[in-house]
Amino acid sequence: MNRIVSVAALALVLIVGAGFWLSQSRTAVTGPEIALPGAASAQESTSEAVSVIEMIEGDVNAPVEVIEYASYTCPHCAHFFEDVFSLLKKDYIDTGKVKFVYREVYFDKYGMWASMIARCEPSKFFGITDLVFKGQAEWVRAGSDAAIAGELRKIGLLAGISNEQLDSCLTDEAKLRALVGWYQENATRDQIDSAPSFMINGEKYSNMSYKDFSRVLDEKLAE
């Protein structure tokens, strides 16, 4: 399980570096756009006077709230999203039993860059997140910063986001600062020290199999 590191010391590096590499690393993508499943509901909080959207799947009034804290560079997070989340979505989220909230944590600048890509078009957030995790083994090993940024930009283009929109999103220094502050506030309040971690109706849980997750949800639903 990956341990979360403090991003305070990395904040300036992320802010200065991300816009440059991501804006300089355009990758042309040919072929049809991928139709992405899923849509994020929007709930806003503020950090440093810039709104940060909570990415939500399911009924916002569902009896059980699950908040996942995950990093785009975390292999365990990728495994959960690919193997467990799909079952949770089918059995609990789409049936109105669970409100699912996804919150990013930042191990490194690459996870931050992936977050900026995913958040470029909120309605496509969960679909882009799926693509990022499915391609994690490839893009995280692309090599240089420029190569990794180029692979992430390719994911955005495949999702139907234009180069111009990507440029705007990936050079938004105010949003980048807001996301760092938002992450630190959430992780401190909920005492998040590893990923993936979960808050289920306010109670903290570590990574679980679908069987264990289902058991916890059923217990919460019966309360």
Name the beta content range: 15-25%
CATH class: Alpha Beta
Number of helices: 10
- Would you report the number of β strands? 8
Unreliably modeled segments: 7-48
Topology order in helix (H) and strand (E) letters: EHEEEHHEHHHHHHEEEH
Characteristic key phrases:
globular; alpha+beta; single chain; 48% helix; two-stranded antiparallel sheet; 223 residues; Glutaredoxin; 18% strand
SSE layout and pairing:
Blueprint: E1 2-3, H1 11-24, E2 41-47, E3 50-57, E4 64-70, H2 75-83, H3 85-93, E5 98-104, H4 109-118, H5 125-134, H6 136-139, H7 145-158, H8 163-170, H9 173-189, E6 194-195, E7 197-200, E8 203-205, H10 210-222
Parallel strand pairs: 4-5
Antiparallel strand pairs: 1-6, 2-3, 3-5, 4-7, 7-8
Helix pairs in contact: 1-9, 3-10, 4-5, 4-7
Summary of the model, kept short:
The chain is of the alpha+beta class and 223 residues long. It has helices at 11-24, 75-83, 85-93, 109-118, 125-134, 136-139, 145-158, 163-170, 173-189, 210-222, and strands spanning 2-3, 41-47, 50-57, 64-70, 98-104, 194-195, 197-200, 203-205.
Kindly describe this structure.
- The protein is of the alpha+beta class.
- The chain has one domain: Glutaredoxin.
- 48% of the residues lie in helices and 18% in strands.
- The protein has ten helices and eight strands.
- The strands form two sheets. Strands 2-3-5-4-7-8 form a six-stranded mixed sheet. Strands 1-6 form a two-stranded antiparallel ribbon.
- Strand 7 and strand 8 form a beta hairpin.
- The longest helix has 17 residues.
- It is globular, with a radius of gyration of 17 Å.
- It starts with a strand and ends with a helix.
- About 19% of the residues have low confidence.
- It holds the Pfam family Thioredoxin_4.
